[in-house]
Amino acid sequence: MSAAVHRFEESIAGRLYLIEVTAVSKDRWRACIVRVPGVPTALMPFYGPTPGEAARHLSDWLTRAHARAANPTGPV
Fold it and tell me: How many structural domains are present in the chain?
């Protein structure tokens, strides 16, 4: 297992997010939002078989969360 950390910057709803992805086992990666590199926030992690997939799961969730916050009474 690699100790590599993958970092992705995503702009979602006008905000810039830094997503860090680390390996937790073979073919399993964990993505977390970070404020300072290496220090994750309290948001639950998202997992995927590749770094890009784990980051995409987190990015997709953030996009849906922002859409829901912008339109709390309508479907997302």
Answer: 1
